[in-house]
Structures are given as C-alpha cells and as structure tokens.
Design goal:
This protein is of the alpha+beta class. It folds into three domains: 4-142, no CATH class; 146-245, Immunoglobulin-like, CATH 2.60.40; 248-360, no CATH class. The protein has six helices and 21 strands. Helix 2 packs antiparallel against helix 3 (72-86). The longest helix is centred in the first third of the chain and has 18 residues, at 4-21. The relative contact order is 0.13. The model has no long low-confidence stretch (mean pLDDT 95). Bound molecules: zinc ion. Zinc ion binds at residues 51-53, 99, 131-132, 135.
Length: 363
C-alpha cells in the first residue's frame, strides 16, 4: 500500500476485472485452459472455470485495495464473492466441493462433451489437487477481516458487511444484529470504550430500498457518502436502527457479453439466484421469464430456511419436429412458473440442469 505505482497498477487491474471480466456471481476465470482470463466481456456460462480459489483470490485482492480507498464498491464485490461464487464451492453438508462454479450446467454435456468435462454437475468429495477445500476452510473462520475495518490511527471504523457479530476495537465495541427475514430491521450498537472521538461508517447495501434510519430513537435523514452512513461517536453509546425492504432485483448484462444477451438474472439480498431442475421441468433453455417475480420464504428440508423467487415464464411447447432443421413456424408457449433458489445452494438435491441467466420474455 505504500508503493503508489504498484497500488495504481493493482487498482487498474481490479477495475478491469470487475467491470469487464467478472461473472455476476463474483466468479472469475473464463477458460479452463490455464484457468485464466481471456478478453473483455468474454464470459461463457458453461465452459468457464470460476474456481473457488479464484473467487477467494478476488476477495483477498479486494480487501487489500479497500484499505487504500474507502468506497463501498469494494465491500460490494467482497459480498458478491462471499455469498455466491465462494460458498457455492462447498455443499451444505460441508463434505463435498466444487473446483468449478458454473453459471449453467447440463449433466449430459458435462459427461459427454470433453470441453465441458471440467464442469461438474455434482460436488466431488475430494480432489487429487485439493486447493479449494482448505482455502474455504481458512477463509470462512477469518470472516471478521471482511466484516470490519479500522484505520491505522484507530480513529475510524468501517462496518463493511452486514453479518450478525460483535467487533472489539481500540476505541469502540460494535455489535450488529439483523432480522432480514421477518421484521426487515437491523440494529447496530456502538459503545465507546475510552471517550475518544471516533468516526463510524456503516455500509448501506445497494440491495435494500425504502431505508429509514433512527439514531438513539430519533429518525434521521440517511445521508450516504461513498456508500457509507457516517456517525461520530463522542461518548457512551449509539444505537442505530434501520428498517427497509429487500426487493427482488432483475439484472441484465452489458450487451457486449454475448453469452448473456437477451437474458436476465435475479437477486435478493446479496444472493444471486439460479433455476434448478429439482424445482422445474427439464429443458431450462426453453423458458422465457416474463412478468413480476415474487420472493417467498420457505423451510426446505435440504436447503433450510431460504427465500425462493417464483417468476412467471413461458415455456416453448415442443411439438417434436421430425427433422433436425425445419422451416420456421411461429412458436407456441405454455404458461409456467419458474422457481429460483439462491445460487450458493444449487446441486444439493438431485443432479440436474441449472442456470443463472434466463431468457428474457419481456415485461
Ligand atoms: Zn482451488
């Protein structure tokens, strides 16, 4: 961080990654050959690498840059990685792992097409070269590094991630508690431990809307600078309470991303969503999503308490043409509902198709 030429070069590389070469899940690595980047906007969804270790590498890289430049753009990327392409590397039973975290899987293609043989449809239990499992095992217990940050002179503290926790610092103790599921309410309790003036910065995630804030019971205007809500702690303690909505977000990719053109992806909270064959009829490529998505809180026997997203869709009515190619005819569609689950928990039930980017059927 003291070498400004190196720091500027690193920032340029980071900018290039997150603006042109990163998957919506936070995964990186567009090709299996060399497990590497390729060129700008080349983000194929079913032949990429997106190694769990690469996601963790992006997390580390971003956390270092964040120390030099306090903007929530860094915490946004760390969150995208943490909740999506990183934890998808491990099964919910904690005993099976993905090297490759694809955005689209067809189990038959993984079995029979050599160009897709690295894209597994289920998590193997171990690898000959086992880098990803221990990398996850050391990163998850070190999660506090990504939640909080403190300036070297201890006069400023940042809360980067909204994760239930307590952080003890030189000048203050911070506690955060969230109820994302029922009340849609978060409380940050900040206690001054030595009567020194300290600045506290709370990141306000971009995936909330209608955010209201109360400081010690008094409603305040939520002023956000570089993604953070700033408070000054003089003495005693401050309690910050926020209420909000967590809407379903519908994304599209830059049109230069050929693999995602004409497609949309969904998000709720920090989670990117995926459609899986366990919840939907097969041939996920034949669905076109259309209309308002609805989030529903469920208790799934395997996936646990999660929010699913149900989105109306039209599925091509297949009339089994006898030829491989046939003259154009107007397609007929069946009205369907497509159920989406958080991407990180895919491949924990039956083996089947999965996809993140879905054909857009319009409004
Ligand atoms: Zn690895």
């Amino acid at each position: 961080l003291n070498d400004s030429a190196l720091l500027n070069a690193a920032k340029k590389i980071w900018e290039s990654i997150v603006s042109k070469r990163m998957y919506i899940t936070g995964g990186i690595g567009s090709t299996v050959r060399g497990e590497a980047f390729t060129y700008d906007y080349d983000l194929p969804t079913d032949t990429m690498y997106c190694e769990t270790c690469a996601a963790i590498g992006l997390l580390y890289f971003t956390s270092v840059l964040q120390k030099s430049d306090k903007n929530s753009a860094y915490a946004d990327i760390m969150e995208r990685v943490l909740y999506n392409s990183m934890i998808s590397g491990m099964s919910l039973d904690g005993e099976h792992f993905f090297y490759v975290n694809p955005l689209e899987v067809d189990p038959e293609a993984s079995l029979k097409n050599p160009d897709k043989s690295h894209v597994k449809a289920t998590r193997p239990s171990w690898f000959g070269c086992a880098c990803c499992p221990p990398n996850l095992a050391r990163t998850i217990p070190a999660i506090q590094r990504y939640i909080y940050d403190e300036s070297e002179d201890t006069k400023r503290i940042w809360i980067n991630q909204w994760i239930d926790s307590t952080g003890a610092f030189e000048n203050a103790t911070l506690q955060q508690q969230h109820d994302f599921r029922n009340k849609k309410e978060s409380t940050f309790t900040i206690t001054n431990t030595n009567d020194l003036e300290t600045e506290i910065f709370i990141r306000i995630p971009y995936w909330l809307d209608n955010v209201s804030v109360w400081v010690n019971g008094e409603e305040k205007v939520l002023e956000i600078t570089d993604g953070y809500f700033k408070l000054i702690l003089f003495s005693n303690s401050i309690e910050v309470r926020l209420t909000y909505n967590m809407p379903v977000l519908k994304w599209q990719a830059n049109p230069n991303v050929k693999s995602a053109y004409g497609k949309v992806a969904f998000q709720k909270g920090p989670f990117i969503y995926a459609a899986e064959e366990s919840d939907n009829e097969s041939a996920l490529h034949l669905y076109h999503v259309k209309g308002e998505p609805v989030a529903i809180d469920i208790e799934d026997a395997v996936l646990g308490p999660i929010s699913v997203i149900d989105v109306p869709a039209q599925k091509l009515e297949q009339t089994e043409p006898s030829s491989l190619y046939y003259l154009y005819q107007k397609p007929g569609y069946l009205e369907k509902n497509l159920r989406l689950i958080p991407y990180y928990c895919w491949a924990n039930r039956d083996t089947g198709e999965m996809r993140v980017w879905l054909n857009d059927g319009g409004e």
